[in-house]
Amino acid sequence: MTALSPRAAVVLVGMSIGEAVRRDELLRAAASHRASIAFLQQADPSLSAELTRLADAGTGTVVLIGVRLATTGPGQSWLRRIAAHWWRERAGHRPELLVATRLADSPDAVATVAAETKAVTGKEPGLTSAAWEEVPGHRHQVLVCRGPRCAALGAEEGLRALNRDLAAHGLGDDDVLVTQTGCQFPCNQAPVVSVQPDDVWYGSVDAATAGRIVTEHLVDGRPVESHRLPRQRKGRTAQHGG
Fold this sequence. Notes:
Elements: E1 9-14, H1 17-21, H2 23-32, E2 36-39, H3 47-56, E3 61-67, H4 76-89, E4 96-100, H5 110-114, E5 117-119, E6 140-145, H6 148-152, H7 155-168, E7 176-181, E8 193-196, E9 200-202, H8 207-219
Parallel strand pairs: 1-2, 1-3, 3-4, 6-7
Antiparallel strand pairs: 4-5, 6-8, 8-9
Helix pairs in contact: 7-8
């Protein structure tokens, strides 16, 4: 039985928030392979929910193919790790799980990637590790909006430049923690980036501006005023006892 045999249920798994915002593209790819879709993060159905649906339907074999259309995201090992966790915890019928050994980086690559799979045994690493016990010691957290407008207006290019320039300055997660988010709301200013705990918000962040945020704000401590958005706080009404 080949990976894309009609006797197996095929699931294309979006690995990152990039696939969540490009859901329609993932759905078209799935339709061409008579597959369903799931997401590792940021969108529904989750991988665990889709596996449960297929198992409850009595499916005998499920082939998981990780798809990463964006430039960043978790590696293929996380697909196996999450699938194995579900398989170990599943009560009742458990289908055979086959996981593609590498990620598809485009819809056209799905069939080729599916040709080489490895069965889940349940002996894969779990979801915890001593390395993930504590909150990172970062001094800044940069929140990069990947909502629909920001994604359409180039948020991925800004994210790529941000990561590249942080690496060039030797800044890792323990210095600056970069987090991709859903909508941060000032959508007319897309792409939006905010820097915490400085409470500085930026709009129209293209690749060049992302580089300036790294060198001027995160390295030199000077916010990039040309792209800084006004920040208005609502006053808190005092509460008095009766």
